Task: structure prediction
Amino acid sequence: MNFCVIYNPVSPHFSQEILDYLIKKMTEKGHTLTQVLKSEYSGHVIKLIKEQDPVSDLIVTMGGDGTVNEAVRAFNEIEQHCLYTHIATGTTNDMANNYNMARHDPYKGIDKLVEEGAPTTMDSLLVNGEPVCYVSAFCYVAPIPFLVSTKLKKRLGHAAYVVSALPIIMKRPEKVKITYTANGETKSISTCLALITTSKGMGGINLYRNSDQNDGKFEVFFLKVLTPKLVPELFTKYLTDKINLADYVQYADTFSTDSLDIRFDGVLPKHAVDNDGNKAEFELTLHDNELHYRLGKKIKVFIPLK
Result:
C-alpha cells in the first residue's frame, strides 16, 4: 500500500533519524512512500490529513498526543478513506499505549507497527461537538497538561507534569456540583475530578487495566471524596505508575456509557475543560453550563492488535 508521513518537528523526541528509520522499514516491507509533510503550525495536521486522505492508503503521523488529536479531528470531519497510524515522539504519549506501541521508544514502535500492524477501528469522543481522541477532564489536576509551559516540557519531559502537579495536588481540591444523566439515570453529586475517557490511561500513567478502545463505550469517573490521607498515596502511585481507578470506586461514581450529559449547578470549574491535554475550544458560562458527551466516528487505524 502507499503511505504518507506527516511529522511534527517540534515534538520532543522527533528526529530525522527516526523518520528515516520509519521510511526504511516501511519500504522494505513493500509499501510505497508518496509524501513526507511537515506540520508547520497548530491545526496544520488537520488540513494535511484532509488533503492526503483521498489519495493515501495509510497516513502515518509522528508527534505527541496533540498530533493524534488533530488527526482524529480531521477524520471526524470527513468520510475517511485511508487507514491511520501514529508513531509517538511526544512527552507522555498516552496514545502510543492505546495503539499497542512503545510509548518512549519510537524505534520499537516502528518495528512493531511494520511487523504486526493490522487494520481495525477505534472509538473517538465528541464533547459539545469537539472531537477528542482519548480523554476529557475537568477540576483538580485536569488542567495541568495545558498549564505546563512548552519550554518546561521540552527541558524536563514527563517530569514537567510532576513538577507542575505538586503545588496543585497539595492544595484542597475544588468541588463543583453537577447533575448528570447516563444509562437512563439522572443523579446529582459534588465532584472534585471528572475523567471521561476511551483510553487505557492519561498523563503518562495507566488508569484502566482492561480498557477497550473499540467497544462503543467510554469510561466515566467522578471523584467525590479526596481526603488529606488519600493525596500522598495517590501522588506516590502517580510517580510509580501504579494507579488503578478500580481501587477507588468507593470514593467515586464510575461507569461505562455511550452518552453522558452534565449540567453544572452553580459554580463552574476554575479552569477550562481539558480535551486531550489541550484547553477546550468552547467556554462554559453560567448560562451555557452543560457538557454533552457522545461517541464520535470510528477511526480506521492500522496498529498492532496486541
